Amino acid sequence: MEVVIVPDAAAGGELIAEAMAQLLRRRPDALLGVATGSTPVPIYQALKAKVRSGAVDASRARIAQLDEYVGLPADHPESYRSVLHRQVLEPLGIGMNAFMGPDGTATDVQAACEAYDRALTEAGGVDLQLLGIGTDGHIGFNEPCSSLASRTRIKTLTEQTRIDNARFFGGDVRQVPHHVITQGIGTILEARHLVLLATGENKADAVAATVEGPVAAVCPASALQLHPHATVVVDEAAASKLKLADYFRHTYANKPGWQGI
């Protein structure tokens, strides 16, 4: 696993945005797996700046959704489809015809999960998947003890996750859905490049378990250790409990060529 320690969230966002830009220069129609929440916002802002400056053209990129609430209409402002339209598609000049996501309003949710899982494969697979991490080590909505071989499926949110997400619903936890569709860990691991960004001291325990702990379902993100091209980008606060932090700093500082990921 490649671990890169950066000074702050903005530096992490810039580094990952440049990796995405490099991919789009090589393959303009790359399938980018995107995540929601506050963590990836610096990535999207940095990529938007590159598009506006003419440093990269993202208009032919394809976008794949990591997860979605069950029961929220697609046009609800807090559906992840709506969030990604505001934060990613519109700023990067990508049309909705290039967007892939699960149907959270489907009558048969299980069938919708299976259909999305197949669609990702039929599209050629995700080229680069962005990930955040929860304080308990979850990725996507794969909570602790999720199967490391799991596929796209419906999951029940823990009460803590609903409380954490209430800030997006005016602070009212009653408005937060109880269920989500999420790519499973097995599905996530099929992406060609996994890039996880973690910032803040509250993520330090989860980052240490992910990078230096055993591969275990109790920390779903630890499955990234099994991937041939996984990059974990963390700020100093999130790296504060890594025993090998100095080694990671030295390795990246002495990486040949430009400091890419």
TrEMBL record:
<feature type="active site" description="Proton acceptor; for enolization step">
    <location>
        <position position="67"/>
    </location>
</feature>
<keyword id="KW-0021">Allosteric enzyme</keyword>
<feature type="active site" description="For ring-opening step">
    <location>
        <position position="136"/>
    </location>
</feature>
<feature type="active site" description="Proton acceptor; for ring-opening step">
    <location>
        <position position="138"/>
    </location>
</feature>
<feature type="active site" description="For ring-opening step">
    <location>
        <position position="143"/>
    </location>
</feature>
<keyword id="KW-0378">Hydrolase</keyword>
<feature type="site" description="Part of the allosteric site">
    <location>
        <position position="156"/>
    </location>
</feature>
<feature type="domain" description="Glucosamine/galactosamine-6-phosphate isomerase">
    <location>
        <begin position="10"/>
        <end position="225"/>
    </location>
</feature>
<dbReference type="GO" id="GO:0005975">
    <property type="term" value="P:carbohydrate metabolic process"/>
</dbReference>
<dbReference type="InterPro" id="IPR037171">
    <property type="entry name" value="NagB/RpiA_transferase-like"/>
</dbReference>
<keyword id="KW-0119">Carbohydrate metabolism</keyword>
<dbReference type="GO" id="GO:0005737">
    <property type="term" value="C:cytoplasm"/>
</dbReference>
<dbReference type="InterPro" id="IPR006148">
    <property type="entry name" value="Glc/Gal-6P_isomerase"/>
</dbReference>
<feature type="site" description="Part of the allosteric site">
    <location>
        <position position="153"/>
    </location>
</feature>
<feature type="site" description="Part of the allosteric site">
    <location>
        <position position="155"/>
    </location>
</feature>
<protein>
    <recommendedName>
        <fullName>Glucosamine-6-phosphate deaminase</fullName>
        <ecNumber>3.5.99.6</ecNumber>
    </recommendedName>
</protein>
<dbReference type="Pfam" id="PF01182">
    <property type="entry name" value="Glucosamine_iso"/>
</dbReference>
<feature type="site" description="Part of the allosteric site">
    <location>
        <position position="146"/>
    </location>
</feature>
<comment type="function">
    <text>Catalyzes the reversible isomerization-deamination of glucosamine 6-phosphate (GlcN6P) to form fructose 6-phosphate (Fru6P) and ammonium ion.</text>
</comment>
<dbReference type="GO" id="GO:0019262">
    <property type="term" value="P:N-acetylneuraminate catabolic process"/>
</dbReference>
<dbReference type="InterPro" id="IPR018321">
    <property type="entry name" value="Glucosamine6P_isomerase_CS"/>
</dbReference>
<dbReference type="GO" id="GO:0042802">
    <property type="term" value="F:identical protein binding"/>
</dbReference>
<dbReference type="GO" id="GO:0006046">
    <property type="term" value="P:N-acetylglucosamine catabolic process"/>
</dbReference>
<dbReference type="GO" id="GO:0006043">
    <property type="term" value="P:glucosamine catabolic process"/>
</dbReference>
<dbReference type="GO" id="GO:0004342">
    <property type="term" value="F:glucosamine-6-phosphate deaminase activity"/>
</dbReference>
<dbReference type="InterPro" id="IPR004547">
    <property type="entry name" value="Glucosamine6P_isomerase"/>
</dbReference>
<comment type="pathway">
    <text>Amino-sugar metabolism; N-acetylneuraminate degradation; D-fructose 6-phosphate from N-acetylneuraminate: step 5/5.</text>
</comment>
<comment type="similarity">
    <text>Belongs to the glucosamine/galactosamine-6-phosphate isomerase family. NagB subfamily.</text>
</comment>
